[in-house]
From TrEMBL:
Transmembrane segments: none annotated. The lineage of its organism: Eukaryota, Fungi, Fungi incertae sedis, Zoopagomycota, Kickxellomycotina. Coiled coil: none annotated. Its EC number is 2.7.4.25. Residues 8-251 form the Cytidylate kinase domain. It is an enzyme of class 2 (transferase). Pfam families: Cytidylate_kin. Belongs to the cytidylate kinase family. Type 1 subfamily. One of its GO terms (biological process) is nucleobase-containing compound metabolic process. It comes from the Eukaryota. This is (d)CMP kinase. SUPFAM superfamilies: P-loop containing nucleoside triphosphate hydrolases. It catalyses: dCMP + ATP = dCDP + ADP; CMP + ATP = CDP + ADP.
Length: 264
């Protein structure tokens, strides 16, 4: 007998902690983790590799759509994170493009700087949403729990609870002050050895903060599916909370929701 799909939507601005929370809980609860931001990042990597970044031209956009259709994106557990920072010593989700592990490549600053140009194009958003929905229905590569009563999926991004899965079973909006987010992202990039630009020059905290503020602006003002709190989202400000505390809050709300469903 197939289990009922149980969708957890986690939205929030850049570096607010969505992936860290989702990755930890995916492993703990045996839920599939779908990182929608990683799909926009994969699209950006494909555009760079195929010299198609200039998507104002219809020819380029059509080609990009074809490439996205042909490309298989998968997400699965990678074991313990390669990140050394004690805050991020946790399981992490690996991202594969046609089987190639691109987890580190798509975290690079070159991708982060260009992803916003693709994320605002309606055709790219539609192709990305199609991939997100396919992934939600795909085989769970995470170790599911034998006692689980649901087929759980955690989907994270900017518009999951508002546009992609407006009927999600539970929604969270995770936020934090921009400076706290920039500090965490900077520490993470240093720990992963990814704090360099395309020329190999080091990138400092101020540049990361500037990028985060710029991406916040783009996310909030985009015409299609801008970043918004869903009316029924549980809002968590993580500025002064440890990762464990945030994970604890999200987990207890999910378990409460699951218990409510069992009673129905
Ligand atoms: N509450 C927290 N306290 C300390 N560090 C945290 C906390 N939450 C997340 N982090 C760390 O901050 C960094 C950014 O978090 P994460 O990658 O989860 O953000 P995100 O919202 O998924 O970002 P993006 O949308 O840009 O992918 C990671 O190194 C993560 O381990
Ligand atoms: N649902 C989503 C997810 C992501 N984006 C855009 C906005 C981000 O700048 C970019 C990369 O996401 P991140 O890895 O930082 O979560 O993708 C979006 O528009 N909608």
């Amino acid at each position: 007998m197939s289990l009922r799909k149980f969708i957890v939507a986690i939205d929030g601005p850049a570096a607010s902690g969505k992936s860290a929370v989702s990755e930890t809980l995916a492993v703990r609860l045996g839920f599939l983790h779908v990182n929608s931001g990683a799909i926009y990042r994969c699209a950006t990597l494909l555009a760079i590799r195929n010299d198609l970044l200039d998507l104002q031209f219809k020819k380029n956009l059509d080609r990009m759509r074809e490439i996205l259709k042909e490309t298989k994106i998968t997400m699965g557990p990678l074991g313990t994170s390669p990140i050394k920072n004690e805050n991020v010593n946790r399981p992490s989700t690996a991202i594969f493009l046609n089987g190639e592990n691109v987890t580190d490549q798509i975290s690079k600053i070159e991708i982060t700087k260009n992803v916003r140009f693709l994320a605002k194009i309606p055709e790219i958003r539609a192709a990305s949403i199609e991939k997100q929905r396919e992934l939600v229905q795909s085989k769970n590569l995470f170790e599911t729990r034998a006692d689980s009563k649901v087929d759980g999926v955690i989907v994270e991004g900017r518009d999951i609870g508002t546009a992609v899965f407006p009927n999600a079973d539970i929604k969270f909006f995770i936020e934090a002050e921009a400076k706290a987010r920039a500090k965490r992202r900077f520490d993470e990039l240093v720990a992963r050895g990814l704090n360099v630009d395309i020329n190999g020059d080091p990138v400092d905290y101020e540049q990361i903060l500037e990028d985060i503020l710029q991406r916040d602006q783009e996310d909030l003002t985009r015409t299609h599916s801008p970043l918004r709190k869903a009316k029924d989202a549980i809002v968590i400000d993580t500025s002064n909370l440890s990762l464990d505390q945030v994970v604890g809050k999200v987990e207890s709300s999910i378990l409460k929701r699951l218990a409510e469903l069992e009673e129905d």
